[in-house]
Amino acid sequence: MKQSKLHTLYEKDMTKKILASLLSILIGLVVGSIIIAAVGFSNPELGASSVWDGIRIVFAGLFSTGRTASGVLTWGFNSTNFGNMLFRATPLIMTGLSVAVAFKTGLFNIGAPGQYLMGTLVSLCIALGIPSSSVAPWLIWILAFLGGVAAGAVWGAIPGALKAFLNINEVLASIMTNWLAANLVTWMFDISNFKNLVENTKSGYIYKTTYNDVATAKLGLDKLFPNSQVNAGILVAILFAIGMYILMNKTTLGYELKACGMNRHSARYAGIRDKRNIVLSMAIAGGLAGGGAALYYLSGNTEFFWSTYQTLPAEGFNGIPVALLAVNNPIAVIFTAIFMSVLDIAGLQLTNLTAYNEYITDVIIAAIVYLSAFSLVIRMLLDGRKKKRKSGDTPADDQPVEPAQSLGDPDLHPDPAITDPDADAPVAEGGEQA
Predict the structure, then answer these.
(1) pTM, 2 dp
(2) Same domain, 214 and 362
(3) Which structural domain, as residue segments, surrounds residue 200?
(4) Using 50, 70 and 90 to split pLDDT, how confident is the model at 74?
(5) Are residues 350 and 361 in the same domain?
(6) Interhelix angle for 330-353 vs 314-325, to 10°?
(7) Among 28, 255, 268, 395, which has the highest number of CB atoms less than 10 A from its own CB?
(8) What average pLDDT score do residues 352-361 get?
(9) Which of 332, 123, 124 is nearest to 245 (CA)?
């Protein structure tokens, strides 16, 4: 029987992936709401109204504008929230792309935090080290950004080379390079002249790049979203996402990278240089993460806390759920990064406008991460109904299959490798089985 267009769309694998991601997000938000309800109803000082306010902010915190004098939440377009959301989404897009590109090539880039740190180090050193009195600030910005990308690429290529030439698992190598980067960055900034000593409380911070008159152009976005940190970095990140989509899906290099990810041995047999492509894949991933750090700190809005040995930047790890929710599609990474940034803003609104803590949104993100990791199971559940229905169905054209059409029919398949299950597999040159 002829299937409806809606049913045909539902049967597509990409539709299942999108539904699995949306279901992961919904369940994560529900988990956060349950936590808010449990905390609110267990505390007599909060109550039902507090629970309702908390849940509304989790789902729509981007549109919260404050409270009235009587304590009622107000809603509407909040230019500060929207602008800050785009600003915070910028590094997430880049680190999400970093993880997604590596995933596409069969590698798990858990080294994005270290690559992000190295991009931070080099971009800030260039932006603050070249005097703007001698070089135009826009040229310093370009050099600093390219330096951050290059530093991340070099740091990403290290675990890539270990994987390609020594077959060392890239996850283990990336974890080690993460902590090497954390300590190296701490030491380099500790001996530098870039520490902010203007205020005693800022002794552990590096100057903002505006100290040297270097900052990302706003291109009018500050007029669209006044009183926010937004700048043209979000546009640069979107261009990178489009570029990565074209690279991975429309170029020969992208095909070779994905082929190595599917099976490096088969790719090598086909004449593809698998070792080079593994290193290149991790270098591209590292460059994206380093570029994300450069865009974030070159904005001129933020200071970098240099004692990074205490922790690794969350932006590097948050690139993992961004890539998982986007099913490793570079264009979808833009939207999943924005969603994660929305959760970040909602967490701040929870702290500012309710009695709840912003870390509730971290629980929501954690739930989404776990569910995204098990997205295959969710897709299997979505497929379950279809498989049960088809178990008793005849073929799509409602015609029974003739016996002569079976795979084992010697008239149609004279090859003994098909008709005889015990027959030897074909042997390629060199004596190896194909």
Answers:
(1) 0.81
(2) no
(3) 80-354
(4) confident
(5) no
(6) 120
(7) 28
(8) 79
(9) 332
**Do 14 and 132 fall into the same domain?**
no
Q: Which of 184, 162, 181 is nearest to 173 (CA)?
A: 162
Both 141 and 198 in one domain: the answer is yes
406 domain-assigned? no
Does 248 lie in the same domain as 185?
Answer: yes
The answer, yes or no, to whether residue 97 has pLDDT greater than 70, is: yes
pLDDT category, 11, cuts 50, 70, 90? Answer: low
Longest Cα separation, the chain:
88
In angstroms, the CA 432 to CA 434 distance is 6
Both 63 and 156 in a single domain? no
Contact between residue 141 and residue 279 where contact means Cβ atoms under 8 Å apart:
no
Q: What is the pLDDT of residue 412?
A: 40
Q: Which residue has the higher pLDDT, 200 or 338?
A: 338
Residue 423 lies in a domain: no
**What is the band of 380 on the pLDDT scale with cuts at 50, 70, 90?**
low
Residues 272 and 380 reside in one and the same domain: no
Asked if residue 398 belongs to a domain, the reply is: no
pLDDT at 292: 96
Cβ within 8 Å of residue 214, ≥6 positions away: 127, 128, 132, 137, 140, 141, 144, 298, 300
Residue 400 lies in a domain: no
Please give the structure tokens belonging to residue 108: 């798990």
| Number of domains composing the chain | 2
Burial of 81 (0-12, 13-18, 19+ CB in 10 A): buried
CA distances from 335 to 328, 380, 417 (A): 12, 25, 48
197 compared with 130, residue with greater pLDDT? 130
Output the average pLDDT for the chain: 82
